[in-house]
């Protein structure tokens, strides 16, 4: 995890936006590149993702 931000979704639910970086210490395709974001909306039905 490179960065995260806590915001509110359009429906008013808490949301966490996460940016990742692919490990740069292991030789692999896309080494060191960032995955720009993943959105986690916090609701009862989505808790399995967290």
UniProtKB/TrEMBL annotation:
Domain of life: Bacteria
InterPro entries: DUF669
Protein name: Uncharacterized protein
């Amino acid at each position: 995890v490179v960065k995260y931000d806590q915001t509110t979704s359009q429906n008013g639910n808490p949301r966490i936006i996460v940016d990742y970086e692919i490990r740069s210490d292991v030789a692999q395709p896309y080494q060191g590149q960032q995955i720009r974001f993943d959105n986690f909306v916090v609701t009862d039905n989505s808790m399995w993702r967290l």
